[in-house]
Write a structure and sequence with these properties.
about 200 residues; mainly beta; SH3 type barrels; 3 domains; 7-stranded mixed beta sheet; 3 helices; globular
Amino acid sequence: MAGETEFAMGATASCADGPGGTVSRLIIDPATETVTHLVIEPKHRLGVGRLVPLDLVDTTAGDIRLRCTVEEFGGLEPAQETELIDDAGDLGLGGLNAPMGVISPVQAILQDTVPLGEADVERGDPVHALDGEIGRVQGLLVDPDDHRVTHVLLQEGHLWGRKNVSIPVSAVTGVENGIRLSLTKRQVEDLPPAG
């Protein structure tokens, strides 16, 4: 696993000319098992996170550097979009029974953006073995040449107290609503510890 790139949630990414932010989500194409984008949240959550295509990402010695300036980073596709929800139906306000002049409350909800046909993996997403949940996602190991995911990293503090467990992607059967495995808890426990 020495040649692989680790994309850990919470890792810091810097732009060519200044700060970028932290990795909050990874976007993967389930059909090809490749990472297509990193979602980078600006420092201190000032501004909206951005979808950063993997071809703008350099990794060396654990550092994530973006091949774009701070200004170019700000021009990338937003990783969240605002959706307005009309609460009138839920609260029984508005409609025919509303007195004149009553304004229906509208709520703004921030939704994560995921490109069509792709899925996102977030820190803390559950990892499900065949016989139940075994832990939470910490990050992914990715082949630097073709961006294919090779392993899923389990967050510290899972069932066995071992610091690092990496699960081969061949054991992953799905990434909707958490990561699903074709292994039992025991089989995951028997995997060799990650370096």
